[in-house]
């Protein structure tokens, strides 16, 4: 297994695993674990005739994913109880949202922290209510704290002192320093209520958020999983004409038309996804594909130079040069 | 990776990759007679790789990585490669095992029934299990005991016995020299020497056993044994388990059933000879 493209193939075409020998299976499992996609893979391959030893590993992964799902929903419920009295929109994001809304993107997905989005003008109330309900600061460092508050799209992370689970409270989906400024008010206004009163983003916004998460908010680490989220969401809504037609316009509104188009090209290329817009091939596309697949059958990161280039680029995209220099200088000095 | 070694320990298959030949040669020698992973497909991958690229040649330094990795684990020297591989396998089990409730305990078997011993490091659980394994019991493991939630059965995990400090000389007088690995001096855990379990432990490692007695040994006290309340046994076993929380409800059910069905005793002992006698007596009295 030279790179993670065979993992991508196994995900979108489960029948392709029929060709694997023992070494191929071990490699596939290691790469899927490293890309945080083992639970997803396990759900995709469920019911296929595969070797017993691999089936046992995948059955364990499904049990783990079910445990993550249950804990994530319980954590969301804890947040609902803490924030309910505030009468403010609490929007679940990413994995927890997929699980709570019962979307296919949530099947087997690893879910870590609880991510929520609230209106910026309610941030102080939300923070106070969470502190009262037993959440505590993780980062006591004053520079980090001030940095988060001034420049980030979220509060400094809070952790619950009894359940040891982290919550990230966002007021938008990208840092204010980024060159792109999504329309946070529109995200909140168009969000959809779940039965318990918590909310999730509207389907087009959910896909737009997955796109920003893939490109603008990081260095593409975990990118394959983020791209898989996009593929699953696209398939979930492919027959919903309203969502389908709204998508490109929505991406435009959030200022991510270019990133959206690129994500569409990449997910079509790697996962054969149905896509709502066809765009001209970008000059950097092959680099993105190579970066997304930079993982070998031992679970090791490969293509170090390319990884570094994307890492540098992610910081470049996130903040202006002078600010970046100062930030890295401070980080390096401690 | 350049060099690799595959092995099955009890029900768990491992693939260990290494940037250097030496750890893999040592593993192959010491794990002689062990089968490979079931169907050739490993449950877990361990990687022994240079901590930094140049540390492959220059003062070689082994970083222990794999499917599951601790971000701030201290690297080991190449001379301690065998220990690195063992720690890597333990790490995968501790962080990644979900099929079994993992108890940090040693276990031996007789007549299809298992004796579990757990306690703080230095309590002697490892040495006692290794000695019992040479004296008529089947050695099931000195580090992890694997409790299967669906059946309540205990599965063996007879990896190499990791003998520390004083226990090394004690076992050297019990077992053939060819079963021992190199003596590893000045490791983070003191002096260590690995010992291959005897042929029976390896041949029967796929055979599970019904738990029949749980002991909490403590070395360095006058000989005494005390019954323990079920709640205390339960809490101490949750502390001895690395994946109790991750298993959720299944873990709770498995552990509470174990505690309800199996008698437990705290055992203080001044020396191993006394301990072995106490174990035999408690077993005759309680495990019937």
From TrEMBL, chain A:
It comes from the Bacteria. This is Nucleotidyltransferase family protein. It comes from Sphingomonas cavernae.
UniProtKB/TrEMBL annotation, chain B:
It comes from the Bacteria. InterPro entries: HprK-rel_A, P-loop_NTPase. Keywords: Kinase, Transferase. GO terms for molecular function: kinase activity. The keyword Kinase applies. NCBIfam families: HprK_rel_A. This is HprK-related kinase A.
């Amino acid at each position: 297994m030279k790179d993670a493209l065979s993992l991508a193939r196994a995900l979108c075409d489960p029948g392709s695993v029929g060709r694997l020998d023992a070494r191929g299976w071990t490699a596939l499992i290691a790469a899927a674990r490293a890309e945080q996609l083992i639970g997803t893979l396990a759900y995709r391959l469920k019911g296929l005739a595969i070797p017993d030893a691999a089936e046992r590993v995948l059955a364990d992964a499904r049990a783990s994913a079910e445990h993550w799902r249950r804990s994530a929903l319980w954590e969301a419920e804890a947040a609902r109880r803490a924030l309910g009295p505030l009468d403010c929109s609490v929007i679940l994001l990413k994995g927890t949202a997929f699980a709570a809304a019962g979307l296919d993107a949530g099947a087997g997905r690893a879910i870590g922290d609880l991510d929520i989005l609230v209106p910026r003008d309610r941030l102080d109330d939300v923070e106070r209510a969470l502190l009262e309900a037993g959440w505590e600061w993780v980062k006591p460092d004053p520079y980090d704290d001030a940095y988060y508050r001034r420049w980030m799209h979220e509060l400094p992370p809070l952790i619950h002192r009894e359940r040891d689970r982290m919550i990230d409270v966002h007021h938008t989906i990208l840092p204010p320093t980024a060159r792109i400024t999504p329309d946070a008010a529109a995200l909140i206004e168009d969000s959809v209520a779940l039965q318990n009163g918590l909310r999730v983003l509207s389907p087009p916004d959910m896909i737009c958020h997955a796109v920003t998460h893939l490109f603008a908010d990081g260095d593409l680490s975990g990118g394959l999983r983020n791209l898989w989220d996009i593929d699953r969401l696209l398939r979930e809504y492919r027959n919903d004409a309203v969502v389908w037609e709204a998508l490109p316009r929505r991406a435009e509104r959030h200022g991510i038309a270019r990133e959206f188009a690129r994500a569409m090209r990449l997910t079509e290329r790697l996962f054969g996804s149905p896509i709502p817009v066809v765009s001209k091939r970008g000059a950097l596309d092959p680099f993105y594909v190579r970066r997304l697949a930079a993982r070998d059958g031992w679970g090791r990161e490969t293509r170090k130079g390319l990884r570094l280039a994307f890492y540098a680029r992610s910081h470049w995209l996130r903040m202006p040069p002078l600010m970046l220099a100062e930030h890295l200088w401070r980080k390096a000095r401690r | 990776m350049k060099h690799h070694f595959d092995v099955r320990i009890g029900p768990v298959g491992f693939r260990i990759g290494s940037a250097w030949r030496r750890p893999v040669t040592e593993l192959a020698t010491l794990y002689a007679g062990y089968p490979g992973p079931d169907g050739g497909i490993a449950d877990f991958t361990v990687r022994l790789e240079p901590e930094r690229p140049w540390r492959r040649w220059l003062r070689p330094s082994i970083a222990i990585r794999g499917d599951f990795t601790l971000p701030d684990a201290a690297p080991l020297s190449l001379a301690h490669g065998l220990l690195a591989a063992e720690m890597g396998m333990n790490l995968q089990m501790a962080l990644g095992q979900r099929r079994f409730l993992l108890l940090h305990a040693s276990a031996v078997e007789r007549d299809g029934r298992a004796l579990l011993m757990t306690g703080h490091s230095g309590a002697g659980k490892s040495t006692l299990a290794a000695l019992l394994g040479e004296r008529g019991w089947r050695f099931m493991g000195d580090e992890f005991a694997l409790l299967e939630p669906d059946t309540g059965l205990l599965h063996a995990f007879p990896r190499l016995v990791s003998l520390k400090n004083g226990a090394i000389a004690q076992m050297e007088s019990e077992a053939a020299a060819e079963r021992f690995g190199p003596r590893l001096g000045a490791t983070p855990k003191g002096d260590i020497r690995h010992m291959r379990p005897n042929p029976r432990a390896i041949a029967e490692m796929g055979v599970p056993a019904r738990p029949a007695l749980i002991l909490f040994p403590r070395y360095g006290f006058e000989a005494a044994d005390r019954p323990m309340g079920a709640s205390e046994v339960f809490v101490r076993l949750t502390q001895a388990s690395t994946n109790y929380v991750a298993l959720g409800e299944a873990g709770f059910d498995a552990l509470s059933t174990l505690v309800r069905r199996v008698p437990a005793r705290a055992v203080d002992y001044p020396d191993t000879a006394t301990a072995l006698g106490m174990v035999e007596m408690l077993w005759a009295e309680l495990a019937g």
